[in-house]
Specification:
Layout: E1 19-25, H1 39-57, H2 61-67, E2 69-80, E3 89-99, E4 103-112, E5 118-130, E6 135-136, H3 141-154
Antiparallel strand pairs: 1-3, 2-5, 3-4, 4-5, 5-6
Length: about 180
Amino acid sequence: MAGGVSDPRAQPSFWAAPFASGEVEVLPAWIDANNHMNLAYYTVAFDLATDVIFDVFDCSYAYKDRVGCGTFAAESHNMYEAELLLGERARIVTHVVGVDAKRVHLAHEMYRADDGRRAATQELMYLHVDLGIRRVVPWPDDVRARIQAACESHATIARPDWTGRRIAMPAPTRQSIPSPRK
């Protein structure tokens, strides 16, 4: 059954916390002039992880074709912590941070497979959109129940401390502002 009470995905106990969203290998096309994975391909890898969890939520490509709705990324924030080089493998885990009537808040973490060091993080806010009218609309009850169950399961572990950050430079102090020359 795709949804409803008998759907195990609508139960928090179904959801590992965090959700294992797969593994990627750094491909030659993903390497930049610095001989490491280009920043754009971190987003590609994280997007593949989003596809995996959206497949389990049943709001991915088949859902779009069946229902005429999809998800749009409204906001994204990546942080890079360790290089990934050609041929290296990385695993991605996903935290469902929040959900409401029309949105889902995800947080991905990418770990180098060889040493377990975190390589990057990505935080996203997705909107549920009716593709016919191009407007944000509520989730269907069955999809919302699956996302809510994942969110409740993930609430049992610590929320990633890096979520909710913003990009900003520290404000200059009076001592660090150069004086104009006379």
